[in-house]
Design brief:
Length: 129
């Protein structure tokens, strides 16, 4: 049974940092494109970062590029999202998700929520000014 479990959310001041984790289980981690998404109140879910488990290549959306860093520990089947220089507009529920194969990562389709096969339940990040 595939499981994705996010953790690390919480509250931060603008300019601060948080580190999210996503523990994956129940499938071969290295064969999946893994993504981080977020959804702010009243807004659509947004793909913000992705990594292909097989080669560790990372991809970022424009809203987080230069501030957020995605990484992985393949031995632990865990991915991370280091979030620096946080802004109030980063306030959202953050989700990790997975889709089989590298192509969604390589093509940029990872940004599309409908592409993903599996989702975690999310972790809440609140950034105050």
């Amino acid at each position: 049974q595939v499981q994705l479990v996010e953790s690390g959310g919480g509250s931060a001041q603008a300019g601060g940092s948080l580190r999210l984790s996503c523990a994956a289980s129940g499938y071969t981690y290295s064969r999946y494109c893994m993504g981080w998404f977020r959804q702010a109140p009243g807004k659509e879910r947004e793909g913000i970062a992705a990594i292909y488990g097989g080669d560790g290549r990372t991809y970022y959306g424009d809203s987080v590029k230069g501030r957020f860093t995605m990484s992985q520990d393949k031995a632990k089947s865990t991915l991370y999202l280091q979030m620096n220089s946080l802004k109030p507009e980063d306030t959202a529920m953050y989700y990790c998700a997975a889709v089989f194969g590298p192509y969604s990562c390589y093509s940029g389709n990872w940004r599309t929520t409908g592409i993903m096969d599996y989702w975690g339940k999310g972790t809440l990040v609140t950034v105050s000014s």
